[in-house]
Amino acid sequence: MLFLVVAIPFVGALAALFPVRKMFRLWLLCAVSFLHVLIVASFWTHLPPSEFSGYLVLDSIGLLLLSVTSFLFLSVSIFMVGYFKHEQRRNRIFVTCLLFLLSMMTLVSVSYHMGLLWVAVETTTLLSAPLISFHRNRESLEATWKYLLVCSVGIALALMGTFFLAIAAHDLNTLFLPMILSGASSLSVNWLKLSIIFLLVGYGCKMGLAPMHSWKPEAYGQSTGMVAVLMAGGLTQCSFLALIRVSQICFKTGLSDFLTSIFLFMGVLSLVVPAVFILSEKNIKRSFAYSSIEHMGILILGLGLGPVGIFGALFHMINNALAKVVMFLTAGSVAQKYGLSRGNDVQGVIHVYPVTGVFLIIALLSGTGMFPFATFHSELMILNAAVISKHYALVGIAVICLGLMFIGIAKNVLGLVYGDPTKPVLAKKEDFFMNVVIAAAAVALVVFGLWMPTPLSKVIHEAVVLIGA
Amino acid sequence: MTTWIDASCILIVFSSLAILATYRIVGIIRIFTLQAFVLSLVPLFLHADALSGRDIMLSLGTVILKAALVPYILLWAIRHISMRSEVKPVIGLGASIICGALLIAGAFWISLSLTLPGKLISDLVLPCSLATILLGFMIMVTRTRAVTQVLGYLVIENGIFLFALSLFEAMPFLIEMGILLDIFVAVFIMAIVLNHINEEFERTSDTLIRSKTGERL
Fold first, then answer.
1. ipTM for the complex shown
2. Which residue from A145, A152, A163 is facing B163, i.e. has the nearest CB?
């Protein structure tokens, strides 16, 4: 089964390479994503056995990420059916890369070998580069270049870290996660520390943690809404999974103090830096990108704050993805309705497109973690964990930064929603496919905010035990 | 066989230094090809007494991907964007070499305090790979052209690969090939993006923009 979830999108990608009609490719993407969702849903009843002599294993942590990925691709593929009705560009490379990306992101969540994990993460980086430059204008190409170089070098450092890890595990002579975990006492501590620093910088770069975040505003600002969703909700969280694997090893070897101090430092920095920059930001997608940096900071903080924090972080992983669907898909639909170049002086969306206007407000509230959206719930859990572990200064800084983020994003979003209506480029109507996806994600956010289903909390609990802080 | 490995390590560091001191982009690509070729010989020297199929395959893979295809793609890219030499390095060539020498010294100094578990094939592997990585960073930082930045990235990768090849056998063969293939695809995509950038900038160019393009690419 595990091989199948990786292989189906791969075969789909090869099929999308053939010269077929544009709509056929979109429906192919929908079909593959739907099939993927079905298979992943079946994993929730019982986890599949390991395959390929232990390379592919699905545990509770991987299941969470895999479900998030699967959901993101389904929503994006339905959204694209609406989006490409009004888009003249060809979609051959775009859909092919999307399907390959789905295959590789699945591989990230099921790989149990640190080397294979690196290969999969690196491949996702490469596949997302052509997606960013979809519009092929000067700015998007510049953004692609920046993303490629910064992330490639970052990931190269993660490779170095993986090799250092192999040296630390010299006596075990393996990079399989379960064997490293069971032989944790024989790891050489100094090499492990060195490896952790390289892995943190490398995967942190891909995750967009400050101060390695410089590619994020450009890449999210220039790519289409769909791509930004997949990157902010999927790719960055794939790197988060890699960091979870690293912390599993650390907690097992008793390096938790060393690790948590780095996590807390990086987390606080990733909260402060976007809060400083957001106030002068005028573009809505770029301000959402800063919000993404902040959410990554929250995830890392949660991972460094003990079991309660880890529970919050894993829950936030799901909520962050859902919120990103609302945020970036709405931004993408606004960008399409008003034309790309005029992103900064549009206003009065709610008077012309009432539904999209409401979605923008929902995006503001869910993205900044307001009640009753689930992001509020999970952020509160992480702050709670910080209070429990007596990091009072950290709580203060986090609350101030979250407040600043709210002000910065609210300024942009409200300026876009209200005011004298700007005339759209073409009087396009609201699209059913585009709106239904955003609405579904918003409803899911409210539901998770008010009530957590038992299977979900059970899986998150299992995952917390696996991480073993 | 230790002598041969030592010689390869030193050659790899020298070639990185030579890249740092070269002005013409075609020349840089040639030196890089040489470096990749030397790197591909290292697995053969590792177990010279009992050469396994794995070593030969690894060596062949490195030669094909790194010493043949990657330079070919880079040469294709610079032919398409018709560019031969660096605009001007951020710091002069002389100063670059001195900085590079300092970096090499630093790498040797750092590796003194790192003790490897298990037996060593050669004492030079660790410092040389560290030095190559640092020199690669130096190339990336001091050069303004996009192609030279890609070459800097490749030099960093070579340094990491040297380290990986010579130190242990924990990495299964398939994963190592995956790593090699990833790097190749990275260069491929970078070359395509470079080409797109060039097309886009030429299409919308006026004199002002053209002067900018010159600086950026």
1. 0.88
2. A163
